[in-house]
Each structure stands twice: as C-alpha cells, then as structure tokens.
C-alpha cells in the first residue's frame, strides 16, 4: 500500500465558507494546502481521534475529529474513493473510517449533543447539522428557549446569523435544562465576556429602541446593556455614528447610536440604539480608573471626576471610547424655531431632523438617509387634508421614504434647506411659499396614478354638489316666499283706479303715465328669468334614494370603532388622518373587497333611481295637468274682469280729469258690478254681464 494519498480539488469547510485546495494523507498525518492563500493545515496522526465518511452536497466528505476537540471537514471526494481511504486509515492511523449519513427527514426536533468544539443536532443516531461553537458570538436564554448568534463571515455571500432552540422543561429538581444548555455553549463559544470591572455605570436610563429601562455598563471594548428581560453586549467596533438631537419641546434630548451589524431581540433587528434624557437631570461621575490611566488612555478627553447633565456625560464618554464624532443638527430652523419637523412615517408620529449631510427620523422606526445616497426629493399634497403636505425621499437604490402630515407652514423653510443642499427636487416650481405655489406640488405625482387620491377628489366633488343642492333649496324657499307678494301686487294693479284710468284715457294721457307701466313690465320681464331659474332645480326629495358611498367610506364606517378602540381619546381630525394612512397602506386584495361592495351599492342605487324616476314622471304629469287647469281658471277670470272694466269705462261720461280720480265711488261701483257679473256668470257659464246692470249699480251708488 502506498505511504501517501493525494487528492486535488478538495474543499475545506472553514466558518461556513468552502476553500479549495489539495489534500495529502501520509504516515505522519494529514496536510491541506489552500490554493488561494497558500495556508497549510497540518494534523498529526497521533492527534486523530475519529474519522467519518458521509454524503454531502458536493459528493462525499471526510470529517476528522482530533483528541483536543477540533473538527476538520473536507468535501469533494468521489464515492469510489471510500475503499482506498478506509484501507489507508486502518493501516496507518489505526482508525475505522465510519460511514454516517446525514438525516434528511426534515424533522425539527431531536437531541443536542456536545462533543468538543462541536454542537450536533441528531435525530436518532443520524446527525442533522453541526455547529462549531467557536463561531458563536452570543448566547441568550429565555423561557424554555436558547438563542445562538454567530460571527459575521465577510468571505461568504450568505451567512448564518442566528439559531434558536426550544428546550422543553423537565421534571428533574435543581437542574434547569435551559441554563445547562447555555453553559455548555458558553464554555466553548467565542462570546464576549464581561471580565474585570466596568469603567463606569449609568443606572436606569430610558431607552426607546429597544424599549425599556437599562443599566449601561461601560467596558473598555464593549457596551453592556442590562435590562430586566434582555442583555446586550455591543462591541465598539459595531458603532457607526453618534447623534445628539434636541427634542422639539426643548426639555429633552435624544442620544442615538447607529449600529452595524444590529442588535437582535428575537426576530427584531435594532439598527439604532435611542436613549431619551431630560435636560434637567444632572449626574456626578467618577471613572473606575486612576488619573494616570485616564490621562494615558483618553488624552485629556475624559477626567477621573466629571459632573454635568446626564446626556452630556453619556455622550462625552461614548465619544471618547468609540472615537467618533457626535453629529448634531445644523443651521436649519423650522417655522416654530425648532431644529426639527413634526411628521409621520409608517403611521407613527415622530421628528425629522435635517442635518448637514443627511436626514434622520426618530423614533419609530429610526431612519438615517445620507445626502449622497438620495436620488431626488419630492413635495406632495397630503392625502387627507390640504393643511399639510408630504415630503418624499427616493434613494439611488430605489427605496422610497414618505414623511407625511407636515404642517404647510414648514414648506418654505424645508424647501430653502433642500435647495441650499443642492438636492434634486422632482417637481421644482415657483418658490413663493404655499400661498401661490402650493398647487404646483400638489399634483406632483402625475407620472404615478394614485387611485386613493382620485377617490378623495371624487368624494370632495360629491360633497360640494350636496352642499350646492342644499343651498339651492334654501334659495328656492326665499324666492317662493317672495314671489307671491309680487304676483299679488300685479293682480292688484288690474283693479287699481290708476290702471283703469290709464286704460280708458287716450292720447291725452301724459308721457309720464305711459312710461310707468312700461317700466313695471320691464322689471317683471327682468325678474321672471331670475325667479324661474331655480325652478329647474327642485329641492331634495326625502323619499329619493341616497347616493352610494365609495369603497373608502364603506371601509371607514366599518373600521371607525376599531380605530377608536386602538387609539383611545383620538380626535376626529387625527382619526381621519389615521384612517387615510391605514387605507393607503392597505393591500390591493383587501381594497378590491371594498371596491366590490361599493360596486354592489352603486348597482342598487341605480336600480332604486330607475324605480324612483318612474314614479316621479307620473307625479310630474299629474302636477302639469293641475297647473294647466289652474291657468285656465285664472285666464277665464281675467277675461271677465276685462270686459266689466271696459263696459264701465265706456258708459261713464268723460267729465274731465277730476272725475277720473273718484277712486272710492269708481271702485265701489266696479266691485258691485263685478259681484253681479259673477252671479250671472255662474248661471250663464261665461256670458258677459249686461251693461244696464253695471250702470244702475253705478247710479245707485252715486
């Protein structure tokens, strides 16, 4: 048998990545040379404890375990090479090359075994997967649960970052299986250990993300957050930026720590650590170091004894340890004089800070956008009201951030800031504030159809039409109350003494008397179109079918109580804003369901309107017949009155102008003659009264 075996194109698994190279087996041991880096791994034959042959993704693999607990994995073998390797191990290493296939049942429950530096999850006697404990960076425990976090592998395209194990409770007294599991992991894992004393400790600091109150212990190389439920150890190397931001109320301060990679809590990732301080809270701090060590390590940036505001002490210590600058707001000032803008992002209210080199939004969820990654910004009208507007930011990667419900008074200041930073504005127009150019950016998203905005516009038009209808109905009532008075005046003029005199007088009447009736007729002609115009618009019929509601209004009526219960004490204005944001964020499938309901309501309305219009046409025909009948009666009475007045004027002698103005006698004789004529009319159906009766009545009255 040969003393050596050589294999080309063999892959060694190191921290989840596969490194190709050459593998050589000799009497002295196993040697692997990385073809990329030239690094050589040498395993002495005396150190080998076990060899396992198994089928893997790249064909077949060889796993070697050493006596000191190290594990080496090599993949890329062919199935035919098993016999050759097995014989070599027996002859030179005195080991039996065991065959153990991986379990591929797909079960997620089994047994965990700890062997040296390896955690093996087995089902029966077959392993499912193995985890080198040297790759574990954090181990946290919960109720019946253990979470393992791993170091990030920059060489691999995809890295495993977290695994969670459920540990069922057992009946054994005095032994907690969760703690036992965690201790086995921590004894072999590369976990940050809090060795030595902390430089300083800040007690019970209010933390917004992750939410809660935490004790912060400052160590030389990492930051330890200790809470009632969770502990976090944050290496200073993961801190990207530090921000110190004043709250809008000028009484609180935000201290923001940007992290990469983020800290984890279950499935949640926190890229920002946000602390909230009160400006009135002071502290006296003493570092757990002697003065010489403080001077040597921090070079005058910190002293052993310090005092001042709590937020100043925390930011000063963090700046010295992380060795990064603290970013504060620049020269931007909003409408109220604050260095931030109140707005909403993803249905949560917060503060947007325009910085010298970017924007940062706090606090839920925190967002930091640098100017160099912004493609363009956009000013758009608010979806629920015209008193506010939206500020949209789109990055070069295509990610869009929309900060909504910004007061319109902030527009000028924000526009000036964006313009001064030379950011690309998508809908650049006249910069004369909201008074004139608000509509310039109101319809800025013309290239993208906003169905929700179209619905809101349509509902606004419907509300305007309803308001116009109600105003027209009230105007019609005033016209109707005014019209009868005018009509009575016109009828009275026919029986007036002046009217009869002017009709009986010939060319001898003065021009002034001729002009008066003409003026009156002209006034009547001018008024009639104005009076009759609203007649075309009838008042609302209470029996008429109601207009159908849109999909949004149907959804709002169904969801109003739920929104109130989720946000107790919410005002009507805030409720409408919240509803608009929820509707805008709703999925297309859910909106289609309400669209179908709105369509059904519209069909029902059209059907009801058809039935209502049929009944309305019958009512219209009856009213027209009644109106014609009334017009005939009025016309017949007018003809009778005209004949009686003419006969009276022809029989009466022309005694001069003084006789024509005997109004009392003339009216009384006229009334008596008209009374007699009415009696004869009733007997003779429309025959004119004889002249002698009117003459006798006139002489009798004289």
TrEMBL record:
Chief place of localization: nucleus
UniProt region (Disordered), positions on chain: 458-552, 608-702
Ranges of biased composition (kind: Low complexity): 497-507, 644-660
Assigned keywords, A-Z: Chromosome, DNA damage, DNA repair, DNA replication, DNA-binding, Nucleus, RNA-binding, Transcription, Transcription regulation
InterPro entries: HMG_box_dom (IPR009071), HMG_box_dom_sf (IPR036910), PH-like_dom_sf (IPR011993), RTT106/SPT16-like_middle_dom (IPR013719), RTT106/SSRP1_HistChap/FACT (IPR050454), SSRP1-like_PH1 (IPR048993), SSRP1/POB3 (IPR000969), SSRP1/POB3_N (IPR035417)
GO process annotations (BP): DNA repair; DNA replication; regulation of chromatin organization
Record GO terms (molecular function): DNA binding; histone binding; nucleosome binding; RNA binding
CDD domains cross-referenced by the UniProt entry: HMG-box_SSRP1-like, PH1_SSRP1-like, PH2_SSRP1-like
Cellular compartment(s): Nucleus, Nucleolus; Nucleus; Chromosome
DNA-binding annotation, residue ranges on this chain: 545-613
Basic and acidic residues bias: start-end ranges: 532-544, 608-620, 631-642
Acidic residues biased stretches: 474-496
Biased composition (Basic residues): 517-531, 621-630
Family statement: Belongs to the SSRP1 family.
Task performed by this protein: Component of the FACT complex, a general chromatin factor that acts to reorganize nucleosomes. The FACT complex is involved in multiple processes that require DNA as a template such as mRNA elongation, DNA replication and DNA repair. During transcription elongation the FACT complex acts as a histone chaperone that both destabilizes and restores nucleosomal structure.
PANTHER family (alphabetical): FACT COMPLEX SUBUNIT SSRP1
Name of the protein: FACT complex subunit SSRP1
Organism: Sylvia borin (Garden warbler)
């Amino acid at each position: 048998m040969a003393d050596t075996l050589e294999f080309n194109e063999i892959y060694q698994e190191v921290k989840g990545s596969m490194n190709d190279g050459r593998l050589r087996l000799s009497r002295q041991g196993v040697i692997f040379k990385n073809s990329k880096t030239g690094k050589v791994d040498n395993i002495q034959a005396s150190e080998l404890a076990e060899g396992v042959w198994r089928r893997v993704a790249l064909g077949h693999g060889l796993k070697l375990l050493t006596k000191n607990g190290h594990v080496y994995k090599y993949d890329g073998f062919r199935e035919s090479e098993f016999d050759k390797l097995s014989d070599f191990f027996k002859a030179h290493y005195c080991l039996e090359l065991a065959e153990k296939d991986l379990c591929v049942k797909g079960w997620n429950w089994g047994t965990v075994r700890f062997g040296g530096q390896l955690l093996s999850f087995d089902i029966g006697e077959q392993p499912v997967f193995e985890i080198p404990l040297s790759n574990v960076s954090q181990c946290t425990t919960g109720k019946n649960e253990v979470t393992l976090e791993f170091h990030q592998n920059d060489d691999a395209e995809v890295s495993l970052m977290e695994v969670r194990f459920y540990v069922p409770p057992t009946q054994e007294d005095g032994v907690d299986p969760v703690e036992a599991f965690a201790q086995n992991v921590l004894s072999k894992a590369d976990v940050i250990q809090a060795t030595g004393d902390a430089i300083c400790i800040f007690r019970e600091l209010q933390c917004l993300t992750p939410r809660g109150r935490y004790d912060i212990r400052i160590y030389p190389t990492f930051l330890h957050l200790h809470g009632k439920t969770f502990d976090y150890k944050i290496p200073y190397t993961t801190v990207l930026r530090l921000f110190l931001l004043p709250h809008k109320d000028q009484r609180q301060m935000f201290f923001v720590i940007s992290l990469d990679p983020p800290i984890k809590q279950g499935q949640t990732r926190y890229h920002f650590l946000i602390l909230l301080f009160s400006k009135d809270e002071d502290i006296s701090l003493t570092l757990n170091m002697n003065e010489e060590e403080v001077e040597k390590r921090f070079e005058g940036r910190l002293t052993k004894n310090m005092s001042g505001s709590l937020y100043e002490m925390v930011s000063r210590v963090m700046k010295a340890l992380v060795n990064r600058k603290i970013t504060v707001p620049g020269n931007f000032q909003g409408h109220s004089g604050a260095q931030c803008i109140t707005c909403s992002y993803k249905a949560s209210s917060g503060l947007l800070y325009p910085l010298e080199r970017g924007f940062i939004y706090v606090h839920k969820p925190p967002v930091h956008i640098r100017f160099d990654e912004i493609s363009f910004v956009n000013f758009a009208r608010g979806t629920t009201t015209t008193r506010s507007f939206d500020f949209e930011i789109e990055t070069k990667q295509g990610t869009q951030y929309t900060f909504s419900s910004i007061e319109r008074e902030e527009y000028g200041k924000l526009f000036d800031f964006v313009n001064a930073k030379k950011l690309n504005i998508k809908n650049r127009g006249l910069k004369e504030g909201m008074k004139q150019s608000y509509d310039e950016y109101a319809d800025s998203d013309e290239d993208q159809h906003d169905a929700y905005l179209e619905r809101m516009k349509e509902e606004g038009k419907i509300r305007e039409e309803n308001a116009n209808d109600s105003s027209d109905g009230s105007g019609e009532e005033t016209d109707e109350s005014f019209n009868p008075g005018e009509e009575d005046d016109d009828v009275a003029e026919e029986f007036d003494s002046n009217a009869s005199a002017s009709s009986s007088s010939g060319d001898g009447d003065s021009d002034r008397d001729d002009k008066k009736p003409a003026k009156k007729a002209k006034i009547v002609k001018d008024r009639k179109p104005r009076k009759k115009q609203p007649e075309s618009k009838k008042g609302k019929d209470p029996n008429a079918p109601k207009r159908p509601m849109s999909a949004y209004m149907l959804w709002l009526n169904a969801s109003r109580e739920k929104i109130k219960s989720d946000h107790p004490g919410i005002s009507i204005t805030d409720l409408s804003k919240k509803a608009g944001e929820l509707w805008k964020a709703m999925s297309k499938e859910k909106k289609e369901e309400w669209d179908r309901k709105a369509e059904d309501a519209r069909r029902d309305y059209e059907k009801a309107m058809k039935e209502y219009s049929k009944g309305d046409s019958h009512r219209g025909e009856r009213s027209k017949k009644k109106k014609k009948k009334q017009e005939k009666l009025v016309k017949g009475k007018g003809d009778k009155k005209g004949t009686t007045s003419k006969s009276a004027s022809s029989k009466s002698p022309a005694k001069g102008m003084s006789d024509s103005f005997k109004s009392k006698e003339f009216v009384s004789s006229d009334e008596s003659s008209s009374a007699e004529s009415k009696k004869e009319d009733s007997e003779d159906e429309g025959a004119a009264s004889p002249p002698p009766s009117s003459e006798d009545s006139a002489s009798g009255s004289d």
